[in-house]
């Protein structure tokens, strides 16, 4: 029930001789208040009146009409005066909407019928205005993509929450508006709703809207920025800034419902649809999935990898108690050290998510040197093959990435780990390679100050793209295993945790970098990890000459 259906309806009778009209209207009109006044200036508020009756009197009809129209331009005015006082034509010319001659047979009965019809029309007009205003408010103010389409799937009306120009949609189908495969699927859904007379409810689908900037939480925030809404009523867009929250190459996800729309005869005249952006919910879903994956990884470590050194420590502790041999305590300590390493790697993996803090222009060579100080071992050599320039990165996370790469190369690159073919380089020999003249070498020395070369690690800029590489001359990674090295827990070393390279990948992806592993280019054997900034064009400064 509308507000108008519960509001009182009223008729105002104006004139010096109002009695016949007031009596007839009061007796015949049930539920309609009838008021009277000698002139408009003494009448009640005309805005609340549904019809004005001009009764017999000396005041010209035109004067009454003008006074009424100054207050309400739409209220119906019925002139009830004798034809000897004013002709119907003159009354209509003066601006009246209807005339009932007061000197004809059954004049009061005819007046009642005309006034009742006028009041009913007035009520319908007001309800129409009320409905139109409500519909306009829905399409203009509600923060949803609301639309109406005809039987061909052409837009008849579109809400303005996600577009500055709703009229651009009118008369066009989704296929005509958007040149992509998903628009065809949306139009097929439209036709199914219309032809089969069946609704589609809560369908999750990729966003087909071209203006992605409006179809998200930030766009809504901008659209309603001048409205008196508190921040708590607006969507949080922070999570959507994370590039990893999008999936399958789509710019966002929506939840769509479409229902048939019927005309007065009950025939399907089109459809009404509503689409709401659920990209944030999808982001949270994916975040929870990643967290669950990590929990599974941690559970694997706790139940398997940590159990082994724990059982070892317990066994040697029992032997020490039984034999009193202190040597077993050293083995217990080794087992504890192993558990400490595992716990440290697990904690690192736990905090290595998709966020990076305070990216700045970082001198890459300086970070490489700092990471090498932590990871260098006797016999390991680091070469910086060229000026590295700067990268926009979180310095501490970048150092962590390099430390894990260096540690991986050092731990896998000992001479005992290398192939022993006749053409392999033996421990302590100097490999002949065409290193750039301006390369910088960092290494440890033997007693005679000759560098020992168990493993040689090179850091340089990519030739074909913006980015850098880290390469070693160790045993390398078998073909077919390149994609698996980034999986948590995968390692070729008995004492390895298998978490170093997954940490590397997650830090790279947190920066928006692409990471690939290939065979070494500057060595006969070895692995090469390449990091490309192209996934985040603003990440790197121009390559130094």
UniProtKB/TrEMBL annotation:
Asked if the record carries the keyword Lipid metabolism, the reply is no
**Region described as Disordered: spans on this chain:** 410-454
Keyword field:
Kinase, Phosphoprotein, Transferase, Two-component regulatory system
Is Kinase included in the keywords of this UniProt record? yes
Q: Which GO terms describe its molecular function?
A: phosphorelay sensor kinase activity
Q: Which residues form the PAC domain?
A: 233-290
Basic and acidic residues bias locations: 420-441
Q: Which Pfam families match?
A: HATPase_c, HisKA, PAS_4
Q: What is its EC number?
A: 2.7.13.3
Q: Which residues form the Histidine kinase domain?
A: 301-537
The record's catalysed reaction(s) read: ATP + protein L-histidine = ADP + protein N-phospho-L-histidine
The broad enzyme category this protein falls into is transferase
Q: What is this protein called?
A: histidine kinase
The organism named in the record is Halogranum gelatinilyticum
């Amino acid at each position: 029930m509308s507000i108008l259906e519960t509001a009182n309806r009223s008729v105002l009778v104006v004139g010096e001789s109002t009695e016949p009209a007031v009596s007839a209207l009061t007796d015949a009109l049930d539920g309609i208040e009838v008021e009277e006044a000698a002139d408009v200036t003494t009448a009640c508020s005309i805005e609340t009146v549904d019809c004005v009756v001009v009764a017999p009197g000396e005041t010209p009809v035109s004067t009454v009409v003008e006074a009424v129209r100054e207050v309400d331009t739409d209220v119906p005015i019925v002139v009830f005066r004798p034809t000897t006082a004013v002709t119907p034509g003159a009354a209509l010319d003066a601006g009246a909407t209807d005339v009932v001659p007061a000197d004809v047979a059954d004049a009061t009965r005819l007046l009642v019928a005309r006034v009742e019809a006028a009041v009913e029309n007035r009520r319908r007009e007001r309800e129409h205005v009320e409905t139109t205003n409500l519909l306009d408010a829905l399409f203009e103010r509600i923060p949803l993509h609301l639309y109406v389409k005809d039987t061909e799937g052409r837009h008849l009306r579109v809400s303005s929450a996600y577009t500055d120009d709703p009229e651009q949609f009118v008369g066009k189908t989704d296929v005509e508006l958007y040149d992509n495969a998903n628009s065809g699927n949306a139009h097929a859904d439209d036709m199914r709703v219309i032809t089969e007379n069946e609704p589609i409810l809560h369908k999750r689908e990729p966003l087909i809207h071209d203006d992605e900037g409006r179809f998200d939480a930030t766009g809504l925030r901008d659209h309603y920025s001048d409205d008196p809404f508190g921040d708590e009523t607006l969507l949080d867009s922070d999570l959507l800034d994370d590039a990893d929250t999008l999936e399958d190459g789509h710019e966002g996800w929506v939840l769509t419902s479409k229902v048939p729309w019927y005309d007065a005869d009950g025939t399907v005249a089109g459809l009404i649809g509503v689409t709401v952006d659920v990209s944030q919910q999808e982001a949270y879903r994916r975040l929870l999935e990643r967290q669950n994956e990590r929990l599974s990884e941690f559970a694997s470590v706790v139940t398997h990898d940590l159990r082994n050194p724990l059982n070892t420590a317990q066994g040697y502790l029992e032997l020490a108690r039984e034999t009193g041999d202190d040597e077993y305590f050293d083995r217990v300590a080794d087992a504890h050290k192993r558990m400490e390493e595992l716990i440290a790697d697990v904690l690192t993996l736990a905090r290595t998510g998709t966020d990076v803090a305070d990216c700045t222009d970082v001198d890459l060579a300086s970070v490489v040197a700092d990471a090498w100080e932590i990871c260098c071992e006797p016999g390991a050599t680091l070469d910086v093959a060229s000026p590295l320039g700067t990268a926009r990165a979180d310095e501490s996370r970048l150092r962590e990435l390099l430390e894990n790469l260096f540690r991986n190369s050092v731990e896998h690159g000992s001479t005992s780990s290398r192939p022993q073919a006749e053409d392999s380089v033996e421990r302590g020999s100097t490999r002949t390679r065409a290193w750039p003249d301006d390369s910088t070498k960092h290494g440890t020395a033997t007693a005679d100050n000759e560098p020992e070369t168990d493993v040689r690690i090179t850091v340089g800029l990519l030739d074909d793209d913006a980015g850098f590489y880290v390469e070693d001359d160790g045993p390398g990674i078998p073909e077919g295993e390149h994609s698996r090295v980034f999986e948590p827990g995968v390692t070729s070393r008995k004492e390895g945790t298998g978490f170093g390279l997954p940490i590397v990948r997650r830090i790279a992806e947190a920066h928006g970098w692409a990471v690939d592993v290939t065979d070494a280019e500057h060595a006969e054997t070895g692995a090469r990890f390449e990091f490309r900034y192209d996934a985040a064009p603003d990440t790197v400064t121009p390559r130094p000459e």
